Amino acid sequence: MMRKVMIVLAVLLLALAGCDGKQKNALLAAQNAYASAIRWGEYESAWQRVDPEYREQHPLTELDLERYAQVQISAYRDLDSTVLPDGSPARLIEIGVINRHTQAERSVRYREEWRWDPEKKTWWVRQGLPDLWAGS
What we know:
It comes from Luteimonas cucumeris. By secondary structure, this protein is of the alpha+beta class. It is about 40% helix and about 30% strand.
């Protein structure tokens, strides 16, 4: 297990080789904050890490929030880190999802893609919140 963690960290560091130190630190902080928000069911907070252009084109509705309230996250695992052709970092994430009503647990895989905003000096998740109902 420790070896896998070291490999993932090495790949992530290589993926960030094109970024300066402040961007690397900002990316790690953004990814940690986003993962923590998802992990603890703070979807409105996680939504604030989503690219503003995406948020404008795909607003989060009350119905969306009600759907997220029906599940509990049991795990948020970084399975793989890569660099996209445009040089942006991406991570393959496995999320453990528990239905609050049935207590049935399942796993969902989700790909996070990150974009650096030089104007705001922050990283954004390019797509919306994870689709926790994929394949359901």
